[in-house]
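Input.
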Amino acid sequence: MSNSVIRLFRGVSLMLVMLFTGSAFALEPIRIGAFLAVTGPASYLGEPELETLQLYIDKLNAAGGVLGRKLELIHYDTQGKAGEARTAVKRLILQDKVDMLIGGSTSGSSMAVIPLVERAQIPLISLAGAGAIVDPVKPWVFKTPHTDRMAVAKVFSHMRDQGMQRIALISGRGGFGRSGRRQALDQAEQYGIQIVADEMYKPRALQVDRQLNAIEAAGDIDAVFNIGFGEGPVMVTRQVRAQFGTIPLYQSHGVASARYIELSGQAAEGVRLPAAPLLISEQLPLGSRQQNVLSALQYAYQSRYQRQISAFGGHAYDALMLFVQAVRDAQTLNPFAIRHALERIRGYVGTGGVVNMSPEDHLGLGLDSFKMLEIRGGQWVLAE
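Output.
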C-alpha cells in the first residue's frame, strides 16, 4: 500500500472519530461575547468577572464543550463607561456574531446597551446590580446579582431589627448610586426608617467633607448608609470613621470584595452590608448543595489566580452556567429557544442562591438568598 493511500486512510479514520465522538470540536464554536470593566475605576468588578469566565470556559472545553461545540470567549474592556459598552456590544453583535452576551460590570453600562440588545434579539445576562435592568421585564435581558431594591430592603430590615430609626444616606452620583438612592427613599417609610440627611458625591471624589458636615448638622443619627461602588465607598468609609468614630456604617453590595477591606484597612471594621453567600461559603451548612458549589468555585479560582474570588466573579460564573444550562436544555443556538430556556430554569444552585426564572422574573432570586455580613478582624462574617 502506498504512503499516499495510508495517509488518506488515516485522514478518513480521524474524520470519522471526530464525527462520532465530537471530541475535536468539528462544529462552529459557541461564541460568548463579554463587555466588562477590566480597567478603570470599576476594574475590581470586571477583572474577576473576566478571570472567572476564562477559567470556566477552559474547564468546559476540557470536558468536551457544549453540544459538541467549543466555547469561544470574545471580550472587550469598557472601562466602566456607557459609551464604550455600546461600542463593544455593537461590535460583538455585528462583527463577531456572538451567540449570547455577558455584561456589563456596571449598571450604567448595562442600561446603555439594552436598546441594542432588544433590537438585535440576542440574550444578555447582566452582571450589574440595578433593579431597573430587569424591572420591568425586558424580553432579552436577564441578570445574576441581587438588585439594589433587595439590598436596600435587607439593610433597612437589619436596621429596624437593631432598633435604628434616624439614618443618614450618602450615595454616589453614578448609575448604581442613583438607582440605589431612589430605592432607599422609596422604601424607608415601610421599614420605619427616617432619612434625616440625604447627600451625594461624585464617583471619583477625593473627599466628602461637605457631605459629612451636612450629616453632622442633621443632629443625632443611628447609622450611616452609603450606596456606591469602586473607590468612592473606601473614601467614605475612612472619612466616616474619622468624623463619626464607631457609628454603625452600612454599605451596599457594590463593595462585596476582599479589595474593599484591603483598601479601607482598619476603618472597615464593623461595616455591614448585604452580599451573596459566596463570601461566607465556609460558614454555610457543610455538605449542602450551595456550599459544595461555592467551595468548588473558590478552590478552582484560588488555584489558578492565587487569590480569593469576589462576589463579582461569582456573578460571572452564574451567568455562564445559566447560559450553558439553557443551551443544553434548548439543544440549539437559536436565540429564541435559548431565551425560552432561560425563562424556564428552576432550581439552579448558584453563588447568589437558588435561581428560579420565569417569563415574569429575569433574576429568579428571593430576598432570603441575600446574606447580611459584617467585617470583623478583616474577615466577612454573618451579622447578628
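The domain at 149-275 is CATH 3.40.50.2300 (Rossmann fold).
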